[in-house]
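Human: Respectfully, please carefully check these tokens:
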Amino acid sequence: MSGYTVIEADSDDEALSVAKKCPFLDIGGSLEVSELIKMPG
């Protein structure tokens, strides 16, 4: 499975807290949490 979800959070810790609630983790899946980088232009 693949895909992405964009969430808005005030901190990395808050984003991780939201990500830890993902049901995909319950079936052995893994997630990557990274900061959005705004592209120029």
